[in-house]
Amino acid sequence: EIVMTQSPATLSVSPGERATLSCRASQSVSSNLAWYQQKPGQAPRLLIYGASTRATGIPARFSGSGSGTEFTLTISSLQSEDFAVYYCQQYNNWPPSITFGQGTRLEIK
Amino acid sequence: QVQLVQSGAEVKKPGASVKVSCKASGYTFTGYYMHWVRQAPGQGLEWMGWINPNSGGTNYAQKFQGRVTMTRDTSISTAYMELSRLRSDDTAVYYCARDRRYYDILTGYYTPSYYFDYWGQGTLVTVSS
């Protein structure tokens, strides 16, 4: 099974600043990677898929990059509504598997 | 608009089974795979498997094989996830999530992407004696 490791576990950033979240795969997943945002008591929301494509309705301040085993989610200028937990998720063709990272909690500094 | 509405919270005893439903609306139910993802209290997300509502075909995560069954009723646009032989560590919120399919220009078919674009509200399943 492909293991996804996110870092840091918790990130403290001030509103208006940039946040950079990392996700590493235990083996190459090509660009088969997504990012989700989850707020307390809510279902996750798809932000980025295919490593770098924003989902419908996602603001341009969210961007994704990377391929293979190293991926990054960048939030260029943090808004109050961006403080949440972020998960990366990979899909692998063979053996077929879908796994999530353990999450990064983005908190207000 | 796309909506996935799940059944209500359940309390079960260890060894019992639970069946969670997910009613879809706002799109063609048979055109999109449906996934199930769970989240234990205070923990991360765990993918359980998917069902192709058109064919009924399924693919389960290895961890759940033998204990999970995913089915659907196309007449009422509803997917189901049944988990058997429940244990205390199955206590979690269970989500259904629609696959964000894409159009493959090489094959001319819509293809699952294995990303999740719409989610149900979640169903809390508590396993306790």
How would you describe this structure in keywords?
heterodimer, A: 109 residues, mainly beta, 4-stranded antiparallel beta sheet, 11 strands, B: 129 residues, 13 strands, 0% helix
Report on the structure:
The complex is a heterodimer of chains A (109) and B (129). Chain A has strands at residues 4-7, 10-13, 19-25, 33-38, 45-49, 53-54, 62-67, 70-75, 85-92, 97-100, 104-108. Chain A has 109 residues and is an all-beta fold. In chain A, the strands form 2 sheets. In chain A, strands 2, 4, 5, 6, 9, 10 and 11 form a 7-stranded mixed sheet that branches. In chain A, strands 1-3-8-7 form a 4-stranded antiparallel sheet, with no helix packed on it. In chain A, a hairpin with a 4-residue loop joins strand 9 (85-92) and strand 10. Chain B has no helices and 13 strands. Chain B has strands at residues 3-6, 10-12, 18-25, 34-39, 45-51, 58-60, 68-73, 78-83, 92-99, 102-104, 109-111, 116-119, 123-127. Chain A binds chain B through residues 1, 32, 34, 36, 38, 43-46, 49-50, 55-56, 87, 89, 91, 96-103, and chain B through 35, 44-47, 59, 61-62, 95, 97, 100, 113-117, 119-122.
Radius of gyration of chain B: 15 Å
Helix content of chain A: under 10%
Mean pLDDT across every amino acid position of chain B:
97
Helix segment tally of chain A: 0
Q: List the chains of the largest interface with their residue counts.
A: A-B, 24 and 20 residues
Element string of chain A (H = helix, E = strand)? EEEEEEEEEEE
Structural class determined from secondary elements of chain A: mainly beta
Strand content of chain A: over 45%
Determine the fraction of residues in helical runs of chain B and give it as a percent range.
under 10%
Rg over C-alpha atoms of chain A, rounded to the nearest angstrom: 13 Å
Task: Give the overall shape of chain B.
Answer: elongated
**Quantity of strands of chain B, as a count:** 13
- Please summarize the sheet with the most strands of chain B: 7 strands, mixed
**Assembly type:** heterodimer
Number of strands of chain A: 11
Q: Structural class of the helices, strands and pairings of chain B?
A: mainly beta
Order of helices and strands of chain B: EEEEEEEEEEEEE
Distance between the termini of chain A: 35 Å
Mean of residue pLDDT of chain A?
96
